[in-house]
Design goal:
With 329 residues, the chain is α/β, with parallel strands linked by helices. It contains 14 helices and twelve strands. The longest helix is centred in the first third of the chain and has 25 residues. The radius of gyration is 30 Å and the shape is elongated.
Length: 329
């Protein structure tokens, strides 16, 4: 049974906020020092990963291992195949997951984690590039690595200076910096990102208009010369609250909405043609526009539908209900 008794000091609100502010300020200063000291080793680490023909293996023990998990996940989700290998499991068969074409990134603040020994020796034996992230360049890990990225000598921010806090914050941020630098180097696009995030909110945010728009026979289109009797039939059949008006070349020149009908429904309304009733130069979207951007336009203009055009010709129509069904709105 654990006989350790914890004695908690009663802290005022001010003391709690002071402690938290101290942590955030100290870790912020450490990140500033990290940014100020990035140099050739970080560049070489980035280039080594970008030149990798296999996968990036990220490893670490304890808290460094948790950070390694996150770095591997970030790399994988941004176009760099990567996964985490536990150093303890590596010594019991998982070294077989690592091949010559891979690159290994090992995290250890002290650089002396005994659990990393077999994995480090394996990379040396088979000439597998090894990147070390550590605070001690001359440590066992730092000395063995092909590239050693050294963390600034910043103290852990816990009261005893022992719990991994500042060091793991710097490791996490360095992993993000590495992933973003690689993304920019590879020209990673929003479309690439969507391929790795098809589900959840991110996938929805990255949907394009052409993935949601209605096409072909589902578009309510009429000619400038069509009488309003025909326009009303088209609007009723398509049930989108509008009709796009095209000229003789097939280009969209106007739109007739329910609002236009209410404004003109008097006198010889039904004997007029579409060109006489339409609102000219309607707002439109391009097929490659993000659906979220199209939603912003609809909200700003208080509209419910948007024609999608290419070279002036309608190729689709997007209704706000389409965005709602996709979970965008």
């Amino acid at each position: 049974m654990n006989n350790i008794v914890h004695k908690y000091k009663l802290m005022s609100d001010h003391d709690i906020l002071h402690a938290a502010t101290h942590v955030l300020t100290a870790e912020g200063n450490a990140l500033k020092a990290l940014a100020d000291n990035l140099g050739e080793s970080f560049v070489k680490a980035t280039q080594t990963v970008m030149n990798c023909k296999g996968r990036v293996i990220v490893t670490g023990m304890g808290k460094s291992g948790h950070i390694a998990h996150k770095i591997a996940a970030t790399l994988a989700s941004t176009g760099t195949p990567a996964h985490f290998v536990h150093p303890g499991e590596a010594s019991h068969g998982d070294l077989g997951m690592i091949v010559r074409e891979d690159v290994v990134i090992a995290l250890s603040n002290s650089g002396e984690a005994a659990e990393l020994t077999d994995l480090v020796n394996y990379t040396r034996r088979f000439s597998i590039p090894l990147i070390a992230i550590t605070s001690r360049a001359q440590s066992a890990l730092g000395s063995a690595a092909d590239v050693t990225v050294v963390l600034p000598n910043e103290p852990e921010v816990c009261p005893m200076g022992l719990a991994p806090t500042t060091s793991t914050t710097m490791m996490m941020a360095l992993g993000d910096a590495l992933a973003v630098a690689i993304m920019e180097g590879k020209g990673f696009t929003a479309e690439d990102y969507k391929n790795f995030h098809p589900g959840g909110k991110l996938g929805k945010i990255l949907l394009r208009v052409n993935e949601l728009m209605r096409k072909g026979a589902d578009m309510p289109l009429v000619a400038e010369s069509d009488l309003m009797t025909h326009v009303l039939v088209v609007m009723t059949e398509k049930s989108l609250g509008c009709a796009g008006v095209c000229d003789s070349a097939g280009k969209l020149v106007g739109i007739i909405t329910d609002g236009d009908l209410r404004r003109h429904i008097q006198g010889d309304f039904l004997s007029q043609n579409a060109a006489q009733i339409m609102t000219k130069a309607p707002m439109t979207a391009e097929p490659g526009m993000l659906a979220a951007e199209a939603l912003k336009i609809l909200n700003e203009k208080a509209r419910t539908q948007l024609f999608v055009v290419e070279s002036g010709k309608p190729v689709g129509i997007l209704h706000i209900h389409d965005l709602l069904r996709a979970g965008i709105a």
